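In this supplementary section we document a worked example of the pipeline. Step one takes a protein sequence of length 685 as its only input; no multiple sequence alignment statistics are reported here. Step two produces a three-dimensional model, which step three serialises into structure tokens for compact storage. The input and output of this example are shown verbatim.
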Amino acid sequence: MKYTFNTKGLTCPHCSAKIEKELLKREEISYARVNIVDETTELVCSVFDKDELLSLLKETVERFEEGVTVSHFEEQKEEEHSEGVLRLVIGGAAFLAVLAAKLFGLDINIVMILSVAVYLMLGYDVLLRSVKNISKGRVFDENFLMSISTIGAFVLKEPIEAMAVMLFYQVGEHFEHLAVKRSKKEIDRIISSFPEDVNVVEGDTYKTVKLSQVNAGDVLVVKKGEKFPVDGVVISGNTSVDVSMLTGEPLPVDVNEKENVLSGSLNIGDTVFVKAEKDFTDSTANKINKIIKEAVSKKAPTESFITKFAEIYTPVVVLLAVVIAVVPALLGYDLAVWARRAIVFLIISCPCALVISVPLSYFSGLGAASRKGILIKGCDVLERLNYVKSAVFDKTGTLTEGSFKVNGIEIFGDSSKEDLYLCGYVSECFSTHPISECIASYIKENHIGLPDINEISEFRIKEGTGVSAKYRGHVYSCENKINNNVNTDTTSLPIYALVDGKPVGVFYIDDVIKNTSKEAVSSLKNNGIHTYMLTGDDSKRAREVSENIGLDEYKAELLPADKVREIEKIKKNGVTLFVGDGLNDAPVMLESDVGIAMGGIGSDSAIEAADAVLANDDPIGVFNAYKIAKKTHKIVIENIVFSIGVKMLFLLLGAVGLIGMGPAVFADVGVTVLAVLNSWRLLKG
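The serialised model returned by step three reads:
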């Protein structure tokens, strides 16, 4: 059984990873995911009931993070908490006051008493967590390091340094909170500010209902300044729509009657009436929300490595600190001097910079991507994108618009235009493929006296080649390639019409190349990525598109199974991404290392099959996703190298007594703050 609980106030990426690991140690729990975006935790357990799991979760969370409210799941609104800032301000002022008192020669005993009071105000939560963890057998963590080093500073009669460690630790925590909050804001803005109530038409008037009660088929009134709450079609009125929340596209889009609107877009024009095509739970905005919330919980391999590294690193540095303090004393050196060095060593050694900045970098990368309309399904996907060596594109609807038109027709032999139109309509009228709809619409516009669809039977789809149906004893079909000796000297896509297997004519179909396809391919190639196109279309049209866009290679006239085999070959050259429309390319997406759905924002199949979805249907989004992944990886490496490099240097200097408490505090908290600020750069684009 799967249960969801609120874990309000849990926003630390590192803590969430530790809580998940601790929960999964229980044999009764088969799945645990802590989500810091919506502050919930999901557990799968077939032994405990809901209340027992709640108690277990509370106990586990309290070991790692104070101040988290654990409760049964319910929708929560974002709240502003100022207690942490107030504590920081008061604590900072008190620290400065005690520092001034010492500098002006106040009695050392009074300074010590005041220092203890300020220290406890700033660090009581760290001390409590440390004591609780020790009582439960969990000794070696950052709370233990902070506690033992600062208590040691008091023992050595250096209260200012002890207070400084706790103060700057809280400053680091505050910066982390701000960074996570800002990342959440970027992610949540897509589905934020939905009205609790919406107006549903009822007869000649309308009534107000809860958004969750909106069902497919309801007619809604959406006024200027309101968001479209569900996916639907405009049945009355014309307006302009701001889709930047969904796609990152800054320019408004004009929407007229009979045109679709997506939930989450903003009505900036006139009042319109919209017929809901989906329930709110199935709406685009809700699906995007689900993708992003789940994405943050999917850890990248580097994150997992850092978590494991910290678990080994912490007890090792504690052991080294003991060696630094004890061994010289046994050899006759001054115990106080070497104990001081050991405490400096412990302060420096805290791994906060690593365990906070690395997951925060991936978190910020996801936020930056979502702002550009790129929905990446996990930190692991973001990391794989960084290593891409080959980019493979589908043609129709990916590199081209996918909106087809009949550019011309040709009649074969003694056949007539009526024969061609009859064949085209009978075989295509039941198909929902864009090419079929294009041909059927063309025939409706240019021919009178269409056949009765009730007389059409045995409609069949021939995978990758065409469609057929039976009408008054004859078999009519439309196919994209035939075995007869029929040649067409054109780059348009020929769709042949056959009656009982005999060609009667051809429809010439055109599909326009997208404006940014060439730029996207060029940008990828400039970054050393080999580009391919795999398509089911004929070789002439595929060659024209490939040459126009500048692709390295292409393969044409492929069935879906052929595309899968081609991807298997290309993957031998390194990490491969495949970009398709998310509908008929699902098997190829699943076979590739990274599957990206173009324009699949409203398609369930795209969201299910792809690792990432480009909301704006723009090929340049593929390069933007790669660029964000590269920048994220670069910042992660910078933080790792900087954090470890500075700490190793300062640990060495501290061990031999060349630096004191001040530089030690910088090596701990200062490095953490700088690493967090470096991660923050991702949100600037």
